[in-house]
UniProtKB/TrEMBL annotation:
<keyword id="KW-0479">Metal-binding</keyword>
<comment type="subunit">
    <text>Homotetramer.</text>
</comment>
<comment type="function">
    <text>Catalyzes the hydrolysis of 3-deoxy-D-manno-octulosonate 8-phosphate (KDO 8-P) to 3-deoxy-D-manno-octulosonate (KDO) and inorganic phosphate.</text>
</comment>
<protein>
    <recommendedName>
        <fullName>3-deoxy-D-manno-octulosonate 8-phosphate phosphatase KdsC</fullName>
        <ecNumber>3.1.3.45</ecNumber>
    </recommendedName>
</protein>
<dbReference type="InterPro" id="IPR036412">
    <property type="entry name" value="HAD-like_sf"/>
</dbReference>
<dbReference type="Pfam" id="PF08282">
    <property type="entry name" value="Hydrolase_3"/>
</dbReference>
<keyword id="KW-0448">Lipopolysaccharide biosynthesis</keyword>
<dbReference type="InterPro" id="IPR050793">
    <property type="entry name" value="CMP-NeuNAc_synthase"/>
</dbReference>
<dbReference type="InterPro" id="IPR023214">
    <property type="entry name" value="HAD_sf"/>
</dbReference>
<keyword id="KW-0378">Hydrolase</keyword>
<comment type="similarity">
    <text>Belongs to the KdsC family.</text>
</comment>
<dbReference type="InterPro" id="IPR010023">
    <property type="entry name" value="KdsC_fam"/>
</dbReference>
<keyword id="KW-0460">Magnesium</keyword>
Amino acid sequence: MADTLRPQWPAELIEKAAAIRLLALDVDGIMTDGTLLFSASGDEMKGFNILDGLGIKQVMAAGINVAVITGRRSPLTEKRMNDLGIPHLMQGREDKKIALRELAARLEIAPNQIAYMGDDLPDLPAIRYAGLGITVPNGYWLVRQHADFCTSAAGGSGAVREACELLLCACGQLNASLQPYLEQD
């Protein structure tokens, strides 16, 4: 794999990311593009990016906890998180910083060991609380201003995968997570 194709992150960002033991994610605007779709009968529809799913699985395989904290309640979100094996799903939580603090206490994880990824004002307190705040280029301007890292990919378009690769690189697991796909018969 050509190193020129790999993302290059600043040393101070890698240093913050190396301490991470918990990646907490918002859903709408991060794992999806933020569009809410409803059928004529009122059924909700969401589009999740498959790139993000594999990145989440790779991060969990590397020993990093993953959680989802969302202000909305959705059976589709619950299904997707179950499919991915995400053990910590907190729905209906507009108080995302409080939810994150509760989870951190339960997991005995310090704030500097948390990466939180969100895109809008309800995410801002959690982004500021976490040791590594991550957002997306289509996120609200004030959130982008306070985040430590803004992905190049938009929410719902592989942004979570990008954040996962940053964490994998920082903990020295990126190459190992990619190696099975490079092995030849």
